[in-house]
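Hi V.,

You were right to ask for the full record rather than a summary. Here it is.
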Amino acid sequence: MITRVGERFAVRAACRFRGPSPVQAAALKSAWATALRTTGTAAGDVELYVQTARTPNAYAAGGRSVAVTSRVLEDYDSGRLPEDQLVAVLVHELGHHATGATRPMLLVSFLAAPWRLAASLLTGLASILANRPPRRGMAIVVAAGLAVAVTRALQQGQWLVGGVLAFVGLAAVLCPLADAAISRQSEFAADRFAVDHGLALELAAALRAMDDGRRGACGWSRLMTPHPTFEQRIRALLAATGSSSSSAPLRPRAGIVTGRRG
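Predicted structure:
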């Protein structure tokens, strides 16, 4: 998975990345070249992909892959996402590679694909049995089954079995929490990379443009969310520039091309 060919296969299979069409490549050429030049990244070191999706987003994966969704391209073409803001988004994704946060995650995602499929099937079954929303039903069924198994093992004096089952149960809760916390920190680290390259305001403006009305997680579910909210990221970006409010005007920095293609 560490080879270029292996990564190309992995991002296509696990992340549904596709090489940009000629039209998409032409649309991204200027912003991508600016992002590479701004970060001092050689053109052959990172490959740019497009993921078909209705949600504006961008990703970094493996050791040399960056992708934007087709919705980002639509917003860019319509002018909703100016070129300087698209450059900031691409620099943020390059920041994930610069901070070394992406390479192990691609391998984990690829190897976990069969598990995700099985979990999806079990979630659907649990929702039917529990007559509840899928995630809640799955949690109830698994928690109840594990509790019964641990209790019976302890009652029968099988302390080792009970301890292993209890450890597995705790790991099932703590590992996703730790993974989500690490992922949130990697987002802030990539944001700081953009700040270090003078793109704090552009990235903050891009996050607002890409918000698309999505609601952040609430309550305990926030601990399981792998990404901080856009508002949290915007506040951190503005704090890095000395702005005191997320409602502060966001003006492009001089020196970044903001004009549209001819």
